[in-house]
Amino acid sequence: MSDSRHDLGGDAQIVTDEGGPPPSVASIRKFIFASSFGILAFLIPFTVDGTWQILIGFLADHTRDFFGKGMPWIVLGLLCLSALGTGVAFMIGREKLTQYPILLRLFLVTPLWAVVRVIGLVMCTMTVFQFGPEMFWHADTGGTVVNGLAVNIVFIFLFAGFLMPFLTEYGLMEFLGTFLKRSFRRLFTLPGRSAIDALASWMSAAAIGVLITIDQYISGHYTRREAAVIATNFSVVSLPFTLVVAKTVGMGSHFIYFYFVVAIVGVGLAIITPRIPPLSLFADKPYDTFHPDRETKATGHSSLFKEAVFLGARRARYAAPLGTQMRVSLGHILDIWFGLLPAVIVIGGAGLMLAEFTPLLTWLAVPFVPLLELLAIPEPSAAAAAMVSGFLDMFLPALLAANLDSEITRFVVGVISVTQLIYMSEIGILLIKCEIPLRFHHLIILFVLRTVIALPIIAAFAHFVVF
């Protein structure tokens, strides 16, 4: 997102102790109530009219529905502020903006990202007013990124940004990490607290998991390598969206098998990819400095549970004031609105235009065709093109595979689309723009690796278990 944290009043100072006195009743109560609210907001599903929801999604959906047809106009307004603010910042210059650090961070971006903001505004304007070449504002291109992706991003990140401190700042990650740190180190080479990132993605949205990972990396809990591994392996597609994909490819009746294979492949990839390049080449260095509570061990406790409670309550005791946390969260939200939204529209829209109006995907898919033929997957050319489209958008493979005749092919494409994880229309842009040192070429390599490793496993299940 930028080279510094986006707060509106200075970062909260990290204050802690080494060991220290036993946690007070007040700090334990603070840990329990604040963390319980974070769990409720991000991790507890409930049903509304027969549909599974979580609190974050419920709030975002109802706020979006409240504005209804006005949502594209809200997106257009945010893009106008982003482009105009960037233009004014360039005219004023860095020296005069130094007295307004939040404006400096939000609007004085590199020339490349300034151009992306302007193009995003132009493309959104064309879509809202439906003028210019149809390929820009067609329902399957500009219409999808503006009316589908962008309108959802606005309020998902609004509520997630303000509620995320309850999940990360009051000891829940220290508590859970204490129980999982040994197994996660052995299996995934990761801290146990990274389980929270995966759970938040699984219950809400992959972008929420990435947002938590970014925050934990900046605050010194993850190294560069750990943050890169978590963001590209644990930002799993949510369970509700997996069901949507399964139904789209006609696998609703096989959903138990479908999701079982997704889980097996996802865990296998999370074990393998951290141990091979490019992820294995990232340095185990912090963003700035390590947080004092990074995987600390509180000695002198008779049980792992007491140690977990001690570390969780200690973290809650030294949590920054809520007002300070909300200012930091507001900075992150504004950065996403002004930086991520135009990038999603530009890159997501360009990718969909390439998929709908050019043969580029067919050309790029050619190397995968022999592999699919070797694995005895019917309709290999169409399947390969659908799989490659997953780099552009997570839902494109399901849409392209929906009309294929072979059940095996639709199953394989559906599962692979959920396990590829690296898609540019949302997650890819977020990763490139954030502080985690992942670059575009890393994402391409990881996308290909995940696809090639996962395909034989999925094909074996499709041939010998499901059908």
Write the layout of secondary structure elements.
Elements: H1 25-42, E1 46-48, E2 51-53, H2 55-67, H3 71-92, H4 94-97, H5 101-107, H6 111-129, H7 134-137, H8 142-168, H9 172-188, H10 194-203, H11 206-218, H12 224-233, H13 239-248, H14 255-272, H15 304-317, H16 322-357, H17 360-365, H18 368-374, H19 380-389, H20 396-401, H21 407-420, H22 424-433, H23 440-466
Antiparallel strand pairs: 1-2
Helix pairs in contact: 1-8, 1-15, 2-8, 3-5, 3-6, 3-8, 3-16, 5-16, 6-16, 8-11, 8-16, 9-15, 10-11, 11-12, 14-21, 14-23, 16-22, 18-19, 19-21, 21-23
How are the strands of the largest sheet arranged? 1-2
What gap, in angstroms, lies between the N and C termini?
45 Å
Class computed from helices, strands and strand pairing: mainly alpha
- Largest beta-sheet characterization: 2 strands, antiparallel
The SSE order reads HEEHHHHHHHHHHHHHHHHHHHHHH
How would you state the average pLDDT, rounded? 86
Molecular structure report:
The protein is built from 23 helices and two strands. With 467 residues, it is an all-alpha fold. The protein folds into two domains: 264 residues, no CATH class; 167 residues, no CATH class. A two-stranded antiparallel sheet has the order 1-2. The longest helix is centred in the last third of the chain and has 36 residues. The termini are far apart.
